[in-house]
Amino acid sequence: xxxxxxxxxxxxxxxxxxxxxxxxxxxxxxxxxxxxxxxxxxxxxxxxxxxxxxxxxxxxxxxxxxxxxxxxxxxxxxxxxxxxxxxxxxxxxxxxxxxxxxxxxxxxxxxxxxxxxxxxxxxxxxxxxxxxxxxxxxxxxxxxxxxxxxxxxxxxxxxxxxxxxxxxxxxxxxxxxxxxxxxxxxx
Length: 187
Hints:
Elements: H1 2-15, H2 27-35, H3 45-59, H4 62-74, H5 80-83, H6 96-109, H7 120-129, H8 132-154
Helix pairs in contact: 3-4, 3-6, 3-8, 6-7, 6-8
């Protein structure tokens, strides 16, 4: 009889439907792996950094902006160029290749606002400077930044920046990340 009860309880346990699991801390490692996906390897590091930073700024992702500033400093690149990023079309700091990538970044960011998709002139200029593999890598970089904006905000990881912000050339005095955020220490 005892054996029958034991087998019966094991059977009930094995045949019972699994409880619905809510995403928890186990989601964060997958989130990190997605963020480290390196299709940007088809791009020069400087172009990749410029494109991701402009996409983050246009998306308004404060965490992404701060993270881009961190990556920019790790590459020992001049911070003044980040301040000129929004004015890339008129700035002599960027090559025609970088301007084409940044114009594409802006067009992809504003894709939903435009009628008819990305302007043909932007695509033509981009294809003069980049291969199809590089265009795909640029698209992934911009789309990735736009993915992380709502995700980091929902996780409470948006940084609270001072009025100048990192792209204005300062290190954002008083910048901090939200408390108890699982994302704040990933980089």
